[in-house]
Amino acid sequence: MESALCWGLATFGACWLVHWGLWWIRVPKGYLVWLPAIFWLLPLAGGISFFWATGDKLPQTETEWFAWILAALLHLTVSSCYICGYAGITEYSPSAEVLLAVREHMPQGLPVNELRVRSFTEHGLTSPRIEDLHTSGLVAIHDGRLRVTRLGCFALALSRVYRVLVGVELTGRG
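Above: the chain's sequence. Below: its structure in token form.
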């Protein structure tokens, strides 16, 4: 079982190095497509290629297969957490903006009715998200109208499943 831990973490580490290298060269637009491609499709293609190239070296016992499955599940879990966390760290956060505005008035604090956040504009809140969604292929823009693409519908379906699994409201509230 130690091999499952090592292989799962090594696969994540290798994918993270590919991610870091690509972002170091040039941060691509549409990370919503790039991160899953790097962390999920690349190892899948690598694993299939490895098994195809070494057909006679496939796992022979149930224990060996179980270790490979555990390694894949570990990688999938860690990479999923990383992808979800990446958006939370790199994207604009209205909650963080509120914290920054309140911090400017410490230690006395700020009355709630005096809270003003300059970046809370329609353009500041929606335009960057629309651009990211369009760049990632989740929405299309035709004649000034936004339309959800098939990939966008798939992302919504995954989001819905995740929200049901963690027990949060299906719409609104992030």
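The two ends are 37 Å apart (CA to CA).
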